Amino acid sequence: MNAIADAVVVGGGILGCAVASELARHGAAVTLVERGPIAAGASGRNHGLLFRPEDPVLDPLYRSSLAGYRELATTTELDLGLDERPVGLLVVVTSEASWPAGEREAASAARGGILVERLDPAGLRAVEPALAMGLQGGLLIDDGIRVDPAALTLALAEEARRRGAEIFTYTEVKQILVSGTRVRGVATDAGVIAAPAVVDAAGPWAAKLARTASAELPIGGIRGWIVLTGPRPGLMHHVVESAGWHLAAGDPGPLPPTVGELGSAGPARQDVGTLVQQNRGGHVLLGGSRAASLTEEPGGPESAAEIARGAARLVPALVELPVLAAWSGVRPTSPDGRPVIGAVPGFDGLFIAGGHGGQGVSLGAGSGLLAAELVLGLEPSFNPRPFEAGRFSAGRTPGNG
Fold this sequence. Notes:
Structural class: alpha/beta
Order of helices and strands: EHEEHEHEHEEHEEEEEHEEHEEHEEEH
Helix content: 25-40%
Oligomer: single chain
């Protein structure tokens, strides 16, 4: 392990690998440290769907990310499974009461120039014959690009290596080293790495890492479960979701419990919806759930069971498919649902890249570019103000720029 670097990136998820790749592209001596394998967390444990964000402030990050992934797909030896065009998102309305939620999502897509088609029950079954009878209708949105998230993250890591970055896996950063407010590097279980800049891209554990330098970051964790079935090619033609599953812009998801709520041993706060996605090999991914995560242990299988029940109600043919696996990942979230990218207030050389929630894949490459530019003091490609860590400080109101 090199004992000196220009910058240390902590975290081998999609954000950390993207930041390291961009820093190395600009000629910086970069060391990335990951406590497990690359893409061990939510970066390798998600549906791998790119959706244009509802929040227009995030659109530049999305566009940059999609362009970066398309370029990466032409240079990497890995198969990223990246769709050439959107597969289509079908928002299914199961009751009259759920129309407003579906229409909100469709209206947001339409404002961004995405084609939307409203479907009655007959039209719904015409485009997805496997759907259950008795549904109210739906909205077909020309969005949703599939990608293999683990392969994408690994490809970004390999690109960083090719550009000169050093990557150490199964190595844990125990502490960010500071003198006063100036960053000196990190202490790992394999030794100290001296560096004037540290990028905290530790995902849902970013706040825990920041506290080792006496810094506070408003990043929490939301755990989500996914169920994988055996293959049945041709079952689904679009990504299908129940209306209301997508978070509204600015909604970070379930909040962590208070001490009083935790002490009462009441039920954990959890959102469960239905997302059915068939991949190229015919396997079907079922999601999803959102629950505040306080520990790294995934807990019981109740969420996976509820996901399976909801998916089978929407697509009855799924009942017969064998379940091959179920897993969960913890998504890092911020209080306003937007990423946190840039310098940590009060410190010289400490930066954060995280808090993306369920949009880490959709915004990963663009966020990595912005973070690297801010670390290096370059003119940023996008307005960084909406993503500043200091926007949560007392007396500061988060805004658009």
